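pinging the channel bc i need a second pair of eyes. not urgent but kinda urgent?? the chain im working w is below, pasted from the shared doc
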Amino acid sequence: MFDFPKYTTPRRGFLGKLAAAAAVGATGFTPLRLEGQPEPRRESGTDASFEAWLNKIPGKKHKMIFDAPEVNGGMPVVWPRVWLNSNNDNYGTTDAENAAVIVLRHSAIPLAMQDAMWAKYKLGDAATNAPAVQNIFAKELPLPLPGTGMVALLAKGALFGVCNVAITIYSGVVAKTMSLDAAAVKQDWIANLLPGVQVVPSGVLAVSRAQEKGCGYCFAG
């Protein structure tokens, strides 16, 4: 047996900004309520990149959606590896034959961002109370379980989606607290996602559509 390291979540830095903004009236809604607000109807139909991402799921031997609304100590990048290994060891499959789909929504969206965003917008907070400047969940975690971390999982064919609604809301609140332009902050965040991460219209939509494509459901946050 071993204990998982006490990885810092971005709650104090990232969500702290949201709480502070709400306290001073920077937004009239809570992030949880806002995440459910619909976007304007598309004039041209569905999002082609989103549909192409979803269409990578069918045809795989085993399929699972990992629903991550929170960082949860890094479990959104640990449980998919455990699931893949378990399938491979018990059923003789390879990573490429299985579909591990991870949806980062609500306060888990910093996991999808490169180090520069963590440093620039103080998305994390280290145990020393100094702002975390690296996305430790992007890299392989120091566990007796090789292949964890977003970069390694993406390289093995795992599908990561990040919620556009959450990015819109949270970037807007962070922009307000930092006296920045909301559209520019959102654009910055999307431009600095880890390579291979798909922006999905909303996290809850991606979770439901992945299940329609045959995925079982695992709550990861």
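so The beta strands are 62-68, 98-104, 124-125, 131-132, 159-163, 198-200, 216-219. and The mean pLDDT is 84. — does that match what u expected or am i reading it wrong
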